[in-house]
Amino acid sequence: MIELRHTILTLILTSLLFIGCAQDAKEITWEQVNSGSSAHLYGVHFFDGKHGWAVGSDGTVLSSKDGGKNWRGDDEKSIATYTLTHVNFTTSINGWITGRGNIHYTGSAGNSWKIQHQIRSTSNITPGILDLYFINRTEGWAVGGVDGMGMSTILYTQNGGGTWEKVDNPSDKHLWGVHAYDTSVWVVGEKGEILYSPDGGKQWTQQISNAEQPLFAVHFPHPSKGWIVGSDGLILHTTDKGMTWKRQTNPMKQSLRDVEFQDEERGWTVGEEGVILHTEDGGETWINYPSPTTKNLQDIHFTGDMGWIVGEKGVILRTK
Which CATH architecture has domain 32-319? Predict the structure, then answer.
């Protein structure tokens, strides 16, 4: 009798746990909030669950202090007139924004900005800086277009942006995305380009993607497990640091512009026509998640279980 009661109790607890997990998954919904802007937004980042920034066309910089419910811009403090592509904060006051050949820095939570690094070009070609990622408060990476000498742009700082050094690399293609895990660094770009460095950028190899289309974003939530997304709905996955990349099945064919995993199993990717894809099993299955917009989506960021997405015509989505 005691064993029977124990078995029944175990089954009940297991069922409740399963139901709880299922409810948690179903309760993740995306809502559109009023950004107060019609600019195309390309980057979003939250340092914590409250303080966040979004950047985009015409030098647009938006900020939120309540988890993305409300946003404000300050035209009087505009830092540029060109498109801003990405934003990253390592503390509540220290942040960086990338744009046309420039890296902008604030040490005052966005009250003022200065150009911390400017690409000096020997030709009429000034490569744009398209993505930015900080491993910690001091080490950061930025990538972008091809310079006048035909070399892809990879920049590295190890002193919080005090100095940015151009890193020699074997690529001659526009680079769209960068992510790092400890000393391992991955960079992706046009024509299926994947670059990998195991030692913090001292040496680089070109990994085989078996893809010809542009690759826009890369994310590694684990030292050896990572994902890449690109045009035509392409999703690539590796479990061995990129020694081999395999395609994962995607029910949608729209181009995907960004990917982020909350852990090794739960991941998100966003793209054209408001597409939001979600996986709960490491990408074994991707589902087309309900989206409140059909506008093109460009960037996604999570802090814990809170997430934000930005896109064209001022679109900002947040989880609720």
Answer: 7 Propeller (2.130)
